[in-house]
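Deliverable D5.2: sample structural annotation.
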Amino acid sequence: MVHMERLAVVIPAAGVGSRMHAQTNKALLNLGGEPMVLRTVRQFWQHRAVQGIVLAVRQDEMLVLRELLDAAGLTTVQLCVGGSTRQESVHNGLQALPASTRWVAVHDAARPLVDAATISEGFTAVQRWGAVGVGVPVKDTIKVVETGVIKETPDRTRLWQVQTPQLFAYDLLLRAHEAAAATGWQGTDDCSLVERLGEPVYMVTGRYTNIKITTPEDMLVAQALLAAAPAQNGGSALVGFGYDVHAFAEDRPLILCGTVIPHTVGLAGHSDADVAVHALMDALLGAAGLGDIGRHFPDTDAAYAGADSMELLNQVLQLLARERITVNNVDITIAAQAPKLAPFMGAMQERLAGALSLPPQRVNIKATTTEKLGFVGRREGMAAYAAVSCSAG
């Protein structure tokens, strides 16, 4: 079984935000009906690749942020005390992560409009290159000005506006921060610290909508982008439906929702025959308009013989991420005369919730019999139905 790499995230949110002219930390300002920082955190928390988030905050805001996160269901987000500078806050966040962390992203709390596709593309790139920045080519002509006089006009075709997330091999970024701290050197972003070590940092193209909210005018732009998102997508709500059926087979394990269920027989199939996950995959592909699992994972391809359906589900989720589609919730019904599935519902729900990066309450799994009617009622096999709700954009 191939295990998917996972990503840790550090979000510095200990700043004052003086240019916002607000009476509170700008990360706590309302954007689209909730504090900005919650919207930022949720963009990573619901991403399937993210294994943990550390939010670096001011000591005096620790309690209020813990309450906000818990009330929003973001209970697994870890808090640490930030520093007097952004760089110190990131360093503290890195130290709060387990030493076994392999990949880490640093993202500004004031960039709440980052999308799943940017996170996915950055994560794919960092696993290849080891150090990656996200940014966009500058649109305007840039001038170098000294004492009010233009001194130089750089070639803008070589200039990029850097954003976050910035993603690194964890040990590389920690080493860069420790080297900077040892000499008191301050950089303007995390890429500059790694560049200072002489290590190459590669650039991934981001989105112009991934703005940093620094001034009151930026807040107006962010609110307009949020309001326009459904219209730009032609309506952001997507739904999908999936159905699958497998016959029982001797000498096969029974696997449902990635969970081994004790039973006298398993299900026949080219892969592990996880009928519930297959229905879910078809529903997700349907919502995205990407066909069905037979098209992507044909049973004539030896590469999928005995395949772990949870790994195939991950591949489907990668396809959705490239289309900028986020899963909101799923509802699965498993039709089986036997065995009784109630004792295993919690484990199945947790397994799928983890794979989908959703709270468990957003993953509903039901089981039913067919009152001894049909092939299910005759205990010849199982069927599964899945409905999903997704958002585009």
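Annotation notes: Residues 143 and 153 are 5 Å apart (CA to CA). The chain has two domains: 7-232, 237-392.
The annotation will be released with the project's public dataset once the embargo ends.
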